[in-house]
Write a structure and sequence with these properties.
The chain has 293 residues and is of the alpha/beta class. It is 41% helix and 16% strand.
Amino acid sequence: MTDHRHSPILVTGAGGALGRLVLAELIARGATELRAGSRRPEALEITGATPLRVDFDDAASLEAAFAGIERLLIISTDAIDAAGTRARQHRAAVEAARRAGVGHVVYTSMPAPTADHPIFFAADHLATEEAIKASGMGYTILRNNWYFENLALSVPGALAHGAQLTAAGAGRIAHGARADFAAAAAGALLGETQSATYDLSGPEAQSVEDQIAAINAALGSAIAVVPMADAALEATLRDAEVPGPLAALLVGADRAAREGRMDKVTDHVERLSGRKPQSLAQWLGENAQRLRG
């Protein structure tokens, strides 16, 4: 495997949770030419990486930041809407990388993005994957499954009410720890040379019943799983003043799980990172308290 520890590497979204973890992994593995891209580089405090302004809505910032970069990680932006904002931002970054002569781009996508996917921003990921493949750059597409950390969106409310509402049915999600997916991204930046797509997952696929059983065991709680239809769940979330896009995302994710779109378990995290991914039980052993809200 080629060693790119001394190649100029840029990580976008460096101020976010995933970006910070990727940079920490790269630094720990001896990367020496690191750049940390953020809309607010002045707020970054990362020893071992040079902060750069990277704003996907500002072409000049992309041109300046991508100059001389050999390896680029494009972390998906946080735009949550149905208007294609994320796809537009990503295409701008891909085009800027192509013009700058970036040799290899790593991109964080999602499981099995398709035009008919129930999660509304899946089309943005699909469009980005297609733009990367058409760019002529080498690429590693990482289709990250849901993070264990996403449970913090729903578990505090479930604890408060003693119930986890779900439209996922018996559908399973092969979710995993954010840190494991970050380690895989770092491994791709340092070692991948052939273009490929990887499905990143935890070591097992679990239903909501499985997840809640593990959470109850870790927290000593008694959350009950309450099945609901899609429309009823979305209406309940909106009645609880959950923002519309987030409510649609949560319902879409449940439907995707129910339809078997998120249950693929692979060894790709271990292949790229060199370590086995954490199980939910292991992660809860270290992080259960954060789910209390």
